[in-house]
Design goal:
The chain is an alpha/beta fold. It has three domains: 2-257, HUPs (Rossmann fold, 3-Layer(aba) Sandwich), CATH 3.40.50.620; 280-379, Anticodon-binding domain of a subclass of class I aminoacyl-tRNA synthetases (Four Helix Bundle (Hemerythrin (Met), subunit A)); 391-456, no CATH class. It has 16 helices and 15 strands. Strands 4-3-9-10 form a four-stranded parallel beta sheet, with helices on both faces. The chain has a four-stranded antiparallel beta sheet with strand order 5-6-7-8. A three-stranded mixed beta sheet has the order 12-11-13, with helices on one face. Strand 14 and strand 15 (451-456) form a beta hairpin.
Length: 457
């Protein structure tokens, strides 16, 4: 299996530190607002990596942190007259619900920054003792120039970084490049050897990673926007505190763009996951994201989501046969093609092509095709439950039937009741017209003694 390592900017054979055990850390959310499509891309991408590593037989420990102490959380707390804890707990719950709705697996470990303060303070003390950090009136800063490899991850030499670097009013840095490990904050802070304060963002991930996964880990992943300064700073402080290499493989996913601009809260051009799920189901969103290589930017549009919706429906509507648990899928040609694609730096678009080939074979009743399709698609996180129709899809179906019959229907219940009356009056032409019109929109009517029910195909 080969993965693109951002640190070396090259494709490398993946070799875990300890046999088949994999220690994987992903930078988690700062919980102060709704998660958006950019977050969906990040966490679905690394969910796929987590699932695939396990599918290939690795023993994976996946840690994804929760940043619940941060400037954005404090600003929101002040604005809404709430405590920071109330804000972070509420938005963490919303984030968790969104992740569950997207069918991402829960990480094995999900530490909160505020629960790891002791480890952060300990790491900062180590850095001060080793001469890599210094205290200045309640703040603690990292001496960037003392770490010779600073800038290696982002490919930015120190002299280039110095251009434009400056010391803000109130900061007492020795050098403009130095960054905060601990911030003085007498209002919202915590006790420390340097007075009341709170951790800098970067030290949080270094401390949580060290506590739960150890000093050196296999994989550290996140969005490309975190390469600098967050991940650059993590490397510097971790390697100086621990005296060893921090991460063997750095992986980063590309941005989601709208009109060629990165989707973000600061630009105000983001779509929340909750809003997106009102129009498209989780399989469609996952399919849209996996159609593109994870390292490339992906341009959002309704056309692209609609295309993904059609593609995933085609796959999930494959002719179903009972799953053959005795079938060794590793002996099949499709398994070989699928794993070759995924082992090539998670080439999900090629992997999806294999799934479409299996869809065609399943529809032709080729023996075992549906079993292989089901198991490979599940490894990518697709669910084969009957999809629920979105509000828009349901309204479009009702509008379609209304036009066909030249009568308005506002709900499925009203339509089913109208069809029931038609059947009682032996008006089979109307009853059949309703059934066929709904079928065009992926809705199946099921008649029984108890009445008529409906479900999506």
């Amino acid at each position: 299996m080969k993965l693109h390592n951002t640190y070396t900017n090259s494709l490398e054979e993946f070799t875990p530190i300890d046999g088949n055990k994999v220690k994987m850390y992903v930078c988690g959310p700062t919980v102060y607002d709704y998660a958006h499509l950019g977050h969906a891309r990040c966490y679905i991408t690394w969910d796929v990596l987590y699932r695939y590593l396990k599918f290939r037989g690795y023993d994976v420990t996946y840690c994804r942190n929760v940043t619940d102490v941060d400037d954005k959380i404090l600003k929101k707390a002040e604005k809404e007259n709430k405590t920071p804890e109330e804000v972070s707990q509420y938005w963490y719950k919303q984030f968790s619900n969104s992740m569950q709705a997207l069918n991402t697996l829960k990480p094995d470990i999900e530490p909160f920054a505020t629960k790891t303060l002791g480890e952060m303070i300990s790491m900062v003390k180590d850095l001060i003792a080793n001469g890599y950090a210094y205290e200045a009136d309640g703040d603690v800063y990292f001496r960037v120039k003392k770490f010779g490899r600073y800038g290696s991850l982002s490919g930015q030499p120190i002299d280039q970084l110095e251009i434009g670097a400056r010391i803000e009013v109130g900061e007492q840095k020795e050098d403009p490049l130095d960054f905060a490990l601990w911030k003085k904050d007498e209002k919202f802070g915590y006790k420390s050897p340097w007075g009341i304060g709170r951790p800098g963002w970067h030290i949080e991930c270094s401390a949580m990673s060290r506590k739960y996964l150890g000093k050196t880990i296999d994989i550290h992943a996140g969005g490309a926007d975190l390469i600098f300064p967050h991940h650059e700073n993590e490397i510097a402080q971790s390697e100086c505190a621990n005296g060893c290499r921090f991460v063997n493989y750095w992986l980063h996913n590309g941005f989601v763009t709208i009109n060629k601009e990165k989707m973000s809260k600061s630009l105000g051009n983001f779509l929340t996951i909750d809003d997106l799920l009102k129009k498209y189901d989780s399989n469609t969103i996952r399919f849209f994201i996996l159609t593109n290589h994870y390292r490339m930017p992906v341009e959002f549009s309704d056309e692209a989501l609609s295309s993904a919706q059609a593609g995933v429906k085609r796959m999930l509507n494959a002719k179903r046969t009972p799953i053959d648990e005795n079938l060794d899928i590793t002996k099949t040609e499709e398994y070989k093609q699928f794993t070759e694609a995924m082992d090539d730096d998670l080439n999900t678009s090629k992997a999806l092509a294999v799934l479409f080939d299996l869809t065609n074979k399943a529809n032709k009743d080729e023996k075992g095709a549906y079993t292989v399709l089901f198991k490979l698609a599940t490894a990518l996180g697709f669910t084969f439950d009957k999809p629920e129709l979105s509000e828009d899809e349901l309204n479009n179906a009702l509008k379609h039937v209304s036009q066909k019959l030249e009568k308005d229907f506002s709900s499925m219940e009203e339509l089913i009741s109208y069809r029931k009356t038609a059947r009682e009056e032996k008006n089979w032409a109307v009853a059949d017209a309703i059934r066929l019109a709904l079928d065009e929109y992926g809705i199946v009517l099921k008649d029984s003694k108890e009445g008529t029910t409906w479900e999506s195909k």
